[in-house]
Amino acid sequence: MVSPERLESMQKGWVRTLERYRVAPADAYPAFDVLVAAYTGPERFYHNLEHLTEMFRVIERLSAAIEDPNAMQLAVWFHDAVYDSRAKDNEQRSGELAVDLLGPIGVPASTIERVVRMIWATAHAAEPPGDRDTRALLDADLAILGASEERYARYAAAIRNEYAWVPDAEYRAGRAGVLNGFLARPRIYYSEILFAEGEARARANLRAELDRLSGKTL
Known about the structure:
66% helix; mainly alpha
């Protein structure tokens, strides 16, 4: 849950970001309301405002390496704006929503194109992204993997709730495939900060969840 105070702070940050594109607050608020409604849907157990809050904290820590902080803010907001655990095109549709909401209020097309490319990258394909900002966004999105054991366990349970419609055996197999995919990478985190602080812990968390999924641990 995000407190009313935190939500107000997020709204102020949203307005400040759009003011840099000369978008008036009155024009910024409706898009903010659409996004908050999306991230607070009843099916959002993990991909919610808490996830965004945690990502913004990471982005702040990586700010020295970010080339376009305003586009980054927008990319964080929109990257999971559309989330349906049954769908395979969430990133595509989230990018389309960014176009639909940002274009009419005057955000430059070049910025929107950059934001959309970053959103699409959060599908986490095997190929590493070529630009620093996208790498920072992906690190922020995966920062949860290197969280404390308690926070990681809460995250894993929330993901299971988002896939409650999937039978248990099928879920275990699918989830194990995702986790093994991350473990197979040469490194999970691109930034030196997250790599130094979270790479080892992320791999330990992933292996522990795999053991739980296989029944090796309770």
